[in-house]
């Protein structure tokens, strides 16, 4: 329903979830306020515990004979309660290759600071992915194109944030999965009517050698099928 404003507008502000929560707490009775749970959120004043849990990811690129090992440690807030959450706290990158030591140290400190600041840190994924190496990128195992080593670091952070529930994984529905299975079978010369359950699902990167690079998922899985370029990895089609 439209509301007519008769008086002159002299100011405005954007309503935030925390403001609504503050109003709810202000309207609560003293007894309700006393029994309200003390929920701890991630912020820069949170002290680092003596022990943190984390995961280590290996990055092997054709740019160096030595692999990079990325460790992301998490802090668990409100443990043992209904409000328990896991948030990234710090990141470390280690390698025998010391060529990029300065920017690796700088990057880890900046990313760790963003983690500890609290709030939504998922924007780091796209920011890092948008970094391009002027010398050119490379293809990682599975046929996916990486525009730079920093972009692959963004991929690692995305994998970790999905693991702890900060990013919802994008899953294809059953119709899309069935469509891709059919196209993969056609590309391999199988009978399209073959039961998908009986057909062996190709491993990651098991696409035709002459496949082109898909502009949507950056995987060399784009093939010409039925007069149209179709990606066998994500289902993107030039025909819509």
How would you sum up this structure, described in words?
- The chain is of the alpha+beta class and 240 residues long.
- Helix content is 29%, strand content 18%.
- The protein contains 6 helices and 8 strands; from the N terminus they run ααβββααββααβββ.
- It has helices at residues 17-27, 30-35, 101-117, 123-129, 149-163, 174-187, and strands spanning 53-59, 68-77, 85-95, 138-139, 145-146, 212-213, 220-225, 228-231.
- It has a 3-stranded antiparallel sheet.
- Strand 6 (212-213) and strand 7 (220-225) form a beta hairpin.
- Helix 4 (123-129) packs antiparallel against helix 5.
- The model is unreliable at 190-204 (pLDDT under 50).
Brief synopsis:
The protein contains six helices and eight strands, in the order H-H-E-E-E-H-H-E-E-H-H-E-E-E.
Arithmetic mean pLDDT: 79
Choose one word for the global shape. globular
Fraction of residues in H or I helices: 25-40%
Strand order of the largest sheet: 1-2-3
- Roughly how many Å apart are the termini? 38 Å
β-strand percent reads: 15-25%
- Largest sheet data: 3 strands, antiparallel
Show unreliable segments: 190-204
Give the tally of β-strands. Answer: 8
Annotation field: number of helices = 6
Radius of gyration: 24 Å
Q: Give me the strand/helix succession.
A: HHEEEHHEEHHEEE
The computed structural class is alpha+beta
Q: What would the keywords be for this entry?
A:
240 residues, alpha+beta, three-stranded antiparallel β-sheet, 6 helices, 8 strands, globular
